[in-house]
Amino acid sequence: MRQLALATLLLASGASGHAALSFPRPRNAADGSLAPWTSWAYPCDKSHSGANCSISFCEHGHDCQGSCPIAARSGVKGALTASNGQACYWFSNGCTVGCARCDGSSNHVGHGSQRFLFKGMSAAALRARNLSIEDPFSPPPGALALNQTTAKSLAIAPNCADPKTAPTVCDPRLRTANTQAACGSKDDVYYYSPWRAPGAAPVIDACGMAGGRFPGQGVGGAGAQFQNSSVMRQGDAGSALPRGPPAAVWRAGDSPEVGWTVMANHGGGYAYRLAPADAPLTEDTFRKLPLAFDGPSALRWDGDRAADMRFDSAARGWQVSTGTVPAGSSWRKNPIPSGLWEREGPTFRPVCDESAACVRGYSTGGAAQGECRCSGWSNGGPLLPNVEVVDRVALPASLSPGRYVLQWRWDCEESDQVWASCSDVQVVAAATGAEPEAKAGVSAA
């Protein structure tokens, strides 16, 4: 019942996205070494469904133990902790394509109240009739349609009066929500969301803002409240956090492994970029050194690299380098469909075949945590709280040795939000004749 209630809350309130870089460990995970976050651990039982397994949003800003999923970099099954603290609470709110700044206060600019129906039925109606959708991710065209009564008040527009750039992502293979709507049509409710022009939307801070809003705007709803601690507070800028010791040591010319986790899924896609540690940590700086992806992606559960599920993002049409910012930079689509079809409409099929319980739960909006392996919205919904999206990024051979900051940026599609984490890394020159880092799949020793 708790899982169903949380899923209903997410659908009704438009919960904020919540995601973070999991390795290299980001700067904004510093509170993970403090109580109460040190008390969390995943998985806590084999079913992933015990009361202590559920990750939770911070709704009121004190003693809430809002936590973020984190998988072990060691690659050892079950060696999971919540040491990422509140890293998944750092983002920029109210950011749309074409605008010079975010508004800080809106997570669904001009949309979010729309509802879809499956052959005229809501999820509740399907549940009452004991029906399910055979393919709730990508049903036949027309099966999921906007409820026009709910669509009347939609304003499909950016949050500025004079947008300077237009969306560039129209390919249905790259889209993650309402994927069957004609690009730019009156039904394309996510047209101005950040993912529709990867990297173009503004941010409040390039490394995220604690709580996602400008100072003075107060705290947000939908689980966006940040719990203050002795090391960071609501409204702190991620770019101003203290430099830490290197969370990883990389060699120029190698392709190291990186990963991120999602707590509440809002589609879109992501990229990795570098900046010299002594440079201003701004978007302009990070745009000068975008990192290309190298090889396939993978999903990883419980930190167990032996169970990696690899998939080729480029071959699936899930990688894009045209219409991106900076020009030519590579972005990959978030490979986890959320399944909130009543708000998002058609999405896309996950990289694995889901169980009958998962499909049935998706259809009726009542799936329990742990029922789905490769899809879901998490936070009490069907997605496991410890699945990571893992990639390799190619470091230029010409990269000068020194201290750098890695930026992970997630441009959402279902919300007008950009999530970010930044990690301290050390780059060293490869020794003459040194063997490159092993590439056994996506993983490394």
Automatic annotation (TrEMBL):
Keyword Signal among UniProt keywords: yes
Keywords linked to the UniProt accession: Signal
UniProt-recorded name of the protein: Chitin-binding type-4 domain-containing protein
Domain of life (superkingdom): Eukaryota
Source taxonomy: Eukaryota, Haptista, Haptophyta, Prymnesiophyceae, Isochrysidales
Leader sequence residues: 1-19
Source species of the chain: Emiliania huxleyi (strain CCMP1516)
